[in-house]
Amino acid sequence: MSVGRLAVLVSGRGSNLQALIDAIGQGDLEAEIVTVISDRGDALGLVRAEKVGIPTRVFPWRGDAHREDYFEDISEAVCEAQADLIILAGFMRVLSPNIVQRFPHRIINIHPSLLPAFPGLRAQRQALKYGVKFAGCTVHFVDEGVDSGPILVQKVVPVYPDDTEKALEERILIQEHIALPEAIRLVLEGKWEIQGRRVV
Ligand code: GAR
User: Fold this and answer.
1) How many CA atoms lie within 13 Å of 105's alpha carbon, on the beta-carbon side?
2) Domain ranges in the chain?
3) Which residues are catalytic?
4) Residue 90: CB within 6 Å of ligand 1?
5) What DSSP string describes 1-12?
6) Which of 64, 2, 65, 57 is nearest to 29 (CA)?
7) What is the pTM of this model?
8) Quick check: 3 and 33 in contact, CB under 8 A?
9) Cβ distance 13 to 42 under 8 Å?
10) Distance between CA atoms of residues 177 and 28, nearest Å
């Protein structure tokens, strides 16, 4: 892969999507975002995409009973867009096995904790409650578990005694915006292999 074609999935604000748009614009990431897909029609990420002329699609969530079909539809949209990689940039749904199996080592997620600590929702709150002194973010390949695939990039931030969830979230987010383009660049360069759980 050289100029990677990215399908970016978002559920909300889309600041990580914006970081990718900016990295590509500045020539720091040789890639093209070919589609932005959301489970929510009101996601700000869609507005960010439309502003720069990236085609968007909305697939409203249809409930757990339809999970497989739902991700089958998203898989089709990704194939129609001829994307090489699927980037979960604040996409708040757990993927079903069918899409994960269809795109092995081609789906990348960003999570606001130092995995394997604090998977799942509200990772920053979990970190504060636990009392860790360092937190951060992880970019990883997606496997069939929740926030459990092989790790590509991690960034660390300190946790201060008087931190609020919001302050910690903002501190981590700054690092997320660096980590996500860095991880995608690494994958697109293709100079990696997976040894057990490790990306080498
Ligand atoms: C980011 O902090 C991302 O790591 C997190 O949601 C936020 C999305 O922000 N993702 C998860 O928690 C996934 N488990 P953004 O919409 O501004 O990129």
Assistant:
1) 15
2) 4-190
3) 111
4) yes
5) --SEEEEEEESS
6) 2
7) 0.97
8) no
9) no
10) 12
- Amino acid letter, residue 18: Q
Cβ of 89 less than 6 Å from ligand 1: yes
Encoded amino acid at 70, one letter: Y
Nearest CA to ligand 1 atom 3: 90
Identify the bridge partners of residue 138 per DSSP, sorted by sequence position. 111, 154
Distances (CA, A) of 167 to 58, 133, 161, 182: 31, 14, 12, 24
Instruction: Say if residue 59's pLDDT is above 70.
Output: yes
The pair of structure tokens assigned to 8 is 């970016």
User: What secondary structure does DSSP assign to the chain, as a single string?
Assistant: --SEEEEEEESS--HHHHHHHHHHHTTSS-EEEEEEEES-TT-HHHHHHHHTT--EEE-----GGGHHHHHHHHHHHHHHTT-SEEEESS--SPPPHHHHHHSTT-EEEEESS-TTSS-SS-HHHHHHHHT-SEEEEEEEE--SSSS-SPEEEEEEEE--TT--HHHHHHHHHHHHHHHHHHHHHHHHHT---EETTEE-
The whole-chain average pLDDT of the chain stands at: 97
* pLDDT of 1: 47
CATH number of 4-190: 3.40.50.170
| Joined tokens for residue 50 | 């439309």
Judge if the beta carbon of residue 111 lies within 6 A of ligand 1: yes
What is the pLDDT at residue 2? 59
CB 183 within 8 A of CB 108: yes
And the tokens for 17?
A: 């999507």
Tokens linked to 91: 């996409």
